[in-house]
Structure formats: C-alpha cells, structure tokens
Amino acid sequence: MSCPPAATPSARCGERTACTSSPREPSGSTTRRWARWNWSTKVWICPATTGCPVTGKPLLIGTTRDEATAFFAFDPRVQNLTAATALDALTAQVGREAAQDAYQRHAARHPQATPARIFTAAQTDGLFRDGSLEIADHHAAGGNTAYVYQFDYAPTDDPYGLGATHCAELPFLFDTFDAYPDSPVLAGVGDAQRALGRAFASALARFVAAGTVSDWLPYVPATAARVRHFGAER
Fold first, then answer.
1. Where are the alpha helices (DSSP H) in the chain?
2. Is the full-model pTM beyond 0.90?
3. DSSP reduced 3-state for 145
C-alpha cells in the first residue's frame, strides 16, 4: 500500500504495511519511535525503519488485582447501582450478552459482593486485565518470552473496599512507604509489607537487568497458572 506524503510507513509485526500520520523524523534525529498496540487489529504497530522493536524481546506486563476501585469506589453513581442498573451500564459498554456473562462470572466469584463491586470488577477486566493478557498472549504466541504478574496485596484494614487498587504496587516497587503514611492503600506498613516490596522489586529488577527471571516461569498463552501473583498471602 502507498502512504500519503506526510505519513510514515510502519510495519505491522507479521502482517502487511500500515501507515501512520506521524511525519518522518529528520535525518540524524535521536528521537525514539516505539511500537504501539492496535486494539482493533490485535497487532503491534512498529516503525518501518527499525522493524518491530518488541519482536524477539522479552516482555513483562501486569496489573493489580482491583485496578478499577481507584476510579469507582468514591463515585456515588457507581456505589448506588442495583443489579439491574449495573447490568444496563455494562450492556451499554459491551452489549447484553457479554454484559450478562461478565456480571454472572464476577457475581459467582464474589457471592457476597454488591452490584457496585461486581460492576467495578468487570471494569478492572475490561480496562486493564483483559488487554494486558491479550498483549501477553500475542507476544508469547509469536515465540517471544513474556512474564505476567498480578499484584494482589490489599491491607487488612480497608474501609473503602479498595483492595489491590490502581498504583498500589508502586510504594512496594520503589520502597516509598514512608511517603504515604496515611494512604488507605497501605493502611500500615510492617516487616511483611517491606519483604513483599523487596521480592517484587527484585523480580522486576532482574528482568530489567537480564531479560529473564530464574524463579518465574514464562507466560504461556491463555494459561492463568503462569501468571505470578505477588502479595496473595498476608
């Protein structure tokens, strides 16, 4: 296919050439171009000049267990949902059949959960977890090494029901507990939390340094057992 003069040809990993609207970099530019994931076509969009920088490279990707609580736990519109209105809201996003499947799946997983919690859990999947696993599936299916994690730690004292919410892993990764003494995401930090932080940070640091982690099995597409969980036990 041909690209308009102002567009830069880009290579889809393993597929046909595509076009982006980004102008060409001037000769000698040090600006880096990165691959991006195209959600509609389920392929990486990669710079034609360098090939696909993620092909043949190890990938580490993950989420927290309860990502979406950070966005919905304090929203009265969500907290006041009934089963019917929660289902209607999901239907508006994904259609009735998929909405019913998602609602029933999360309701079965959390039998005592309110409609708000079920709706929020479905949002965690739809906005964070499903996409991350989709990227890992695609990368690993191409013969590339992928590591997938889920950060599960949630404080025992959790009055807002945040669980392991969005960004909850960051104080553990960077050992910045003391910067957030009153954060409900932590609700107290002791030896166990600091040990979890060291384990999490060490695993990610080994990946950054070597592209592999000796005690972490690489991800296999659609295999939940190959997702490493951090903080599931307190």
1. 69-72, 76-79, 83-94, 96-109, 115-124, 130-141, 170-174, 191-210
2. no
3. coil
